[in-house]
Amino acid sequence: KQDAGLIHTSHDSARFGLATFSNLSYDPPVPGGGDGDKTAPMTTATTDPAAPQSGWYTGPVSVTLSAADEANGSGVGKTEYVLDGGDWTPYTEPVTVSGEGKHELKYRSTDKAGNVEDVKAAAFQIDTKAPAVVISGMADGEKYGDSQDLQIAWQVVDTASGVKSVSGTLDGKPFESGTLQPLYGLALGTHTVTVTAVSNAGSQTEQSVTFSVETSTRDIAALIDRFEKDGKLTDREAHRLQTNLATVRDAEDKGKKDDKIIKEIRKFKDAVSGKKGVSDEQVRAVLLRDADALIVRHGGTPA
To answer: 123 — phi, psi (to 5°)?
Structure first.
């Protein structure tokens, strides 16, 4: 800033004068800046962790916004963002995106010349919870007679990313949900149903239920009726077996000694496997197996 003098002249060339002005200022132009900066800055967003291949994050996401103006530009004046709607907020530190479901982060920057960047947006999908698995049709730790059927099924829910895959097994072998399982088709003892569910975010849940299959004279009687109805036993075979089994049940109900009960069970086994025994191999195997289990229960040793 300095004083400046200007020469003033009139149409009368004989007359002239000097005018003086004070406090004039002059700002030389800045190459590419000031009134010459017409380009908005550019903002980039970086996430921690990096974007997963599935498109779903399994935890909170930290978003860092970095803005830069053009070379010899006026410089970045400010950066702003909006998370899931609302007002623009000045950016001062990384933005944390959290909570189940889908989110949107909008952002922009403005340079010192007033050029405003077009709004950019980044989408985030977050699923922090593994799928929920509910197995139905039997109770964990429950004991069931082998004359029963169990309809084993399961439901899988993942409210955020959704369910990618579900698989079930019974004792390690593939098993379909909703299958009606006759328990006489399983070995006596403990069994485990395991369901594995994976969400689209990659989270996994494995749920298991254990139950036991056992037998009794009442279960055996019910199985004989069932096999007869299914045509696997003739009326004559079924009647003979029920008659022999009735003596076993009578001995149990009267509280006779174990050796007496075992003796009657062996007679029942003879009726199953003797010359006039059961012709269907599967039925014969199930009934003999159950009879041996009763012998063990009463302290004996199967032949």
So the answer is: -100, 140
Interacting residues of 249 by C-beta distance below 8 A, sequence separation 6+:
217, 218, 221
**Count of beta carbons in the 10 Å neighbourhood of residue 27:** 6
pLDDT, position 50: 96
Token digits for 213?
Answer: 């299959």
Q: How far apart are CA 154 and CA 142, in angstroms?
A: 17
Residue 250 DSSP SS3: helix
Helices (H), ranges, 95-232: 217-229
Nearest Cα residue to 98 out of 133, 163, 132, 48: 48
Q: Where are the alpha helices (DSSP H) in the chain?
A: 217-229, 235-253, 258-273, 281-297
pLDDT digits 0-9 by tens, 62-81: 999 999 999 989 999 999 99
Q: Are 176 and 154 in contact (CB under 8 A)?
A: no
Write down the residue that tokens 């004792």 correspond to.
171
* Residue that has been written with the tokens 């009606």 in this structure: 180
CA atoms of 301 and 298, how far apart (whole Å): 9
Cα separation, 248 vs 266, in Å, equals: 9
**CA–CA separation, 106 and 121 (whole Å):** 4
The reported pTM is 0.77
Q: Is a pLDDT exceeding 70 seen at residue 23?
A: no
